[in-house]
Amino acid sequence: MGKRLTQIATRTGDDGTTGLGNNTRVPKDSPRIQALGDVDELNSHIGLLLCEAMPEGVRELLVQVQHELFNLGGELSIPGFELLKDDAVLALDEALAEHNARLPKLEEFILPAGTRAAAQAHVCRTVARRAERAVVAVGAAEPLREAPRQYLNRLSDLLFVLARVLNRMDGGDDVYWRSERLARG
Description:
Residues 8-165 form the Cobalamin adenosyltransferase-like domain. By secondary structure, the chain is mainly alpha-helical. It has helices at 31-49, 56-77, 86-101, 116-141, 146-167, 180-184, and strands at 17-19, 25-27. The longest helix is centred in the last third of the chain and has 26 residues, at 116-141.
């Protein structure tokens, strides 16, 4: 693969625009750029999550997710281009089924807490939801394939499940929400 970045500080964005992969320029506050930024932020948060101890299978899954998020970002940066394959959505479905099958059924709401790794997985989940909303906004304004939206939707679900997995890694449990109002019955 050849070099793709030869210069980081180009100064071409000083006017409030940024370049897309098809050589068009758009305002930095456009829905497409917002979605790109949210996907990039999500990928960065997953990188932070990967600094934590976790089962090797979860680590491998999250590394693959990072690559797919890079593909998703590439697809967002080149209107009409396809980089994120439908197989990526199927892989998340399979991972969801696998990890969820090992967890006890949820009967209460849980808080985004527990171990540091689980809490970071919850942060990733919320950023994934924001990225999904941003991708939906792009799709409302211009043609966009379903796969990017579906991928982020499944990923946020998977991150919730992985937070539960990570809380149990060393014998822990979910942190359950306690409602005083519900307790009074």
